């Protein structure tokens, strides 16, 4: 005899529909969801039901609410938020190792799968790194570069896993402050910048092995940089979208 499935509540149905729409790409990461009122009118339900559904998505880490701005998509699935909660319990070295493996293989795949538009976006992100004149703008450009690289892999789960283990944000935390002496830091970042250019060139050329080798080179350089910097990256495991 088949088991009886308990009926789902209206807020649960709304949350499930929003999950599907987020996963399908209708609402990509960083996108703002329609307002409670707009969703209620679209779905023919009450604002209270929509509010409860959104609250459940916030709790799961899929979306985040910003007072006065609305509700924004933080992840395309529960994978990244779940991993982010887990990594705080793991050794920093283990997390870094997984992150570098994901990036190396992501670079290899991107060289084979990146679309012309993704290649152009990668070059634009590389240019933004080059022209950055302060820590926060450099960090933002670098985060964008690495996310675009993983996105260009054509494997959404790989990109989500990379985000879930913190991406490259932790290594950039001390740069992401307005009072950092960026000129001094930039001298130490020159070789890392060259390795990023090598990744972009390999992806443009469609050379998978060269892209993976360049990503490996970045791993080695970043480890040296972090080891010699007197302000090592945080290990709190916070998920940064």
Automatic annotation (TrEMBL):
GO MF, any single term: DNA binding
Protein name in UniProt: HTH gntR-type domain-containing protein
InterPro entries xref list: GntR_C, TF_FadR/GntR_C, Tscrpt_reg_HTH_GntR, WH-like_DNA-bd_sf, WH_DNA-bd_sf
Domain HTH gntR-type: 8-76
Keywords: DNA-binding, Transcription, Transcription regulation
Record Pfam families: FCD, GntR
PROSITE patterns per record: HTH_GNTR (PS50949)
Highest taxon listed in the record's lineage: Bacteria
């Amino acid at each position: 005899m088949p088991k009886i499935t308990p009926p789902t509540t209206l807020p649960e149905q709304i949350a499930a529909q929003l999950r599907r729409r987020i996963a399908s790409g209708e609402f990509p990461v960083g996108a703002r969801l329609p307002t409670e009122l707009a969703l209620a009118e679209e779905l023919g339900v009450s604002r209270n039901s929509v509010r409860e559904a959104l609250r459940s998505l916030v709790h799961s880490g899929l979306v985040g609410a910003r007072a006065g701005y609305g509700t924004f998509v933080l992840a395309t699935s529960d994978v990244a938020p779940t991993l982010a909660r887990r990594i705080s319990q793991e050794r920093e070295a283990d997390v870094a190792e997984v992150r570098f493996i994901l990036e190396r293989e992501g670079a290899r795949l991107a060289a084979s799968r990146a679309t012309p538009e993704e290649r152009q976006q990668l070059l634009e992100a590389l240019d933004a790194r080059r022209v950055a004149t302060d820590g926060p703008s450099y960090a933002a450009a670098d985060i964008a570069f690495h996310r675009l690289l993983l996105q260009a892999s054509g494997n959404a789960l790989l990109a989500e896993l990379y985000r879930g283990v913190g991406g490259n944000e932790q290594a950039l935390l001390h740069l992401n402050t307005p009072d950092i002496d960026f000129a001094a830091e930039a001298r130490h970042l020159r070789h890392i910048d060259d390795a990023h250019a090598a990744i972009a060139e390999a992806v443009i050329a469609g050379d998978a092995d060269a892209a993976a080798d360049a990503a490996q080179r970045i791993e080695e350089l970043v480890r040296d940089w972090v080891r010699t910097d007197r302000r090592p990256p945080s290990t709190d495991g916070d998920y940064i979208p």
